Amino acid sequence: MEKLVKLLEQLLFNMRELEAVLSDEQLLLCAGHVDGPALQVITDKKSSLLSTVQHLDKIRLQGESVLRVKAPYSSHDVLTDLWQQISTLSESLRDKNQHNGLLLGYHLDHNEKALAVLKPRHAQSLYGPDGQSRSNAISGRRISI
């Protein structure tokens, strides 16, 4: 049982770290201009922590099977308390992550609209891909000297 307590404590610790990373991500996404490299660092940390949490949860399920107990551990006060904290934090993390996803979607939409405005102007260049002048106003034959 002590191993399960330690495991739940480790799970809670990693989830709290994930909460801090999600808060950092939210601050970055709320800024006027998103710093791409900083967002990548946060995304990498978030992925790593999510993998760790997933791994710890897998071990938790195996431990429950061996000990023949199941969350929310109503017959074990310490486990019940830890599980309640984990459940509450899990809901908070889900909400924060969804909010960050909406913020990220807003930035992507904004960038796509900016590209849509710029793309037609870029296509109207003076020179074609072959380096030759492109002029729709000139009609007739081209003369090279």
From TrEMBL:
- Give the residue range of the signal peptide: none
Q: Which UniProt key words apply to this protein?
A: Bacterial flagellum biogenesis, Cell projection, Cilium, Flagellum
Transmembrane: present as a keyword of the record? no
Biological process (GO), any one: bacterial-type flagellum assembly
The record's annotation in InterPro entries points to: FlgN-like, FlgN-like_sf
Give yes or no: UniProt keyword Plastid.
no
| Superkingdom to which the source organism belongs | Bacteria
Region named Disordered: 126-145
Q: Give the function comment from the record.
A: Required for the efficient initiation of filament assembly.
The family assignment reads: Belongs to the FlgN family.
Q: Spell out the protein name for this chain.
A: Flagellar biosynthesis protein FlgN
Please report the organism this UniProt entry assigns to the protein.
Dickeya undicola
